[in-house]
Amino acid sequence: MTQFVDECGLNVRGGDGGAGCVSFRREAHVAKGGPNGGDGGDGGSVWLVADHNVASLIAFKDHPHRRAGNGAHGQGKRRHGAAGDDAVVRVPVGTSVKDQGGELLADLAADGVRWLAAAGGQGGQGNSRFSTHQNRAPAFAEQGEAGEQRWLRLELKLLADVALIGFPNAGKSTLISRISAARPKIADYPFTTLEPNLGVVRTDDDLEMVVADIPGLIAGASDGRGLGHRFLRHTERARVMVVLVDLASVEESSPAEQQRVLLEELSAYRPELLERPRIVVGSKADVGHLDPPPGAFCLSAVTGAGLPELVRVMADAVREARAQGSLAQGAGRSEEVVVHRPIPEGIRVERADDGAYVVVGRAAERTVALSDINAPGAWEFARRRLEKLGVDRALARAGIKSGDTARIGAFEFEYHDGDEFYSEGVTS
Ligand SMILES: Nc1nc2c(ncn2[C@@H]2O[C@H](COP(=O)(O)OP(=O)(O)OP(=O)(O)O)[C@@H](O)[C@H]2O)c(=O)[nH]1
Ligand SMILES: [Mg+2]
Questions:
Q1: Planar angle of CA 289, 222, 300, nearest 5 degrees
Q2: 301-328 residue pLDDT tens
Q3: 189 C-alpha vs ligand 2 centroid, how far in Å?
Q4: Rounded to the nearest whole angstrom, what is the distance from the C-alpha of residue 282 to the centroid of ligand 1?
Q5: Model-level pTM?
Q6: Which CATH number characterizes residue 297's domain?
Q7: pLDDT on residue 5
Q8: Which residues line ligand 1 (CB under 6 A)?
Q9: I want to staple 144 with a disulfide (CB 3.0 to 4.6 A). Which of 17, 52, 191, 248 is the partner?
């Protein structure tokens, strides 16, 4: 069976953390009181959430960027900045997420599953946090950390919600071309369509459903006549069947007879197909004068009469079928979060192509990213923190020598043995 794969790139960016504030208490008789700079707020994160009302990746094709809100800066009097808003990105159930290299990061396989796509940056601490016995008036605060940013690849195996079933030439392709962006070949002879066409239909209230225009069925299809089983296979996973009968058929068969044969073929192939919600449509109502079967819904894909009503009826049936489907899967699974690759912790030293020693590790990178190295005292503070994290030991173990270049995140410096274990920071 042809696999219809919908795919797109998505750029996600967490919000930046707000900067910590440098501020001192001011009182009438005290020239410079204690530090009282507040912390910056954390940046918001970008979450992907599987939602069964989204059926395709269309929304990302022209707008592939999603950003969360920035944290606000800290202020004096220990006022902390507000956290940035999270961005919640709704994707279809069944979306798999890969990185640029094609490695699988997450499978959003059930309705409600959430996955953290880009973490927000940590807010910087205000100077009130850095008061020590040695330094009771720290004149530095932390910067906000930049939010995580990356390109992802989203992939979705499209499964039809609705299958259009009918004899050849009944008007299935014409219908899908009017209610979706699909543009299949339409012609006044049978067997025009040889491969299914999928179209995404979007309703006014933002429901998306995938509709499959499948090649025409004929009597005996279930025994392999026509293109037989190959076509019927596409109906297997559709939640809702739309059966088209031709009100302008030039063959002898009346619409009621067409309906009888079509249902017989479906049932001979898989009896359970008849248990699915079904909508019977009389097509070509503008020129057809044959009596529709009882309960059929009449429309003309050429004039457009009846199309909005059909879309509404289809959407109701799909919504109901999806709700039942997710109950069947077990509603308890909705909190499940699938993460395939945790962020590595600890400190690691790698060699770059240019020979530099690169320190890799979230904590060390954070320390550097948060430091406002130009402020007096800040670099001293960061240096001690790096030492505690074991950065100097890791560098020594990796064989670094005086004069070599070392790098942590965007920060580069020349390494020196001894007390001054490194000096001369340069932000690249
Ligand atoms: N007057 C009128 N003609 C229609 C209408 N819908 C389809 N037709 C015509 O019917 C013919 C067949 O339409 P298609 O949409 O190709 O039919 P199909 O069911 O996809 O046919 P197969 O792909 O062969 O199974 C074309 O000439 C269409 O222009 C309609 O509502 N009114
Ligand atoms: Mg067709």
A1: 25
A2: 999 999 999 999 999 999 998 888 755 5
A3: 9
A4: 12
A5: 0.67
A6: 3.40.50.300
A7: 64
A8: 166, 168-174, 186-188, 190-193, 215-216, 283-284, 286-287, 300-302
A9: 17
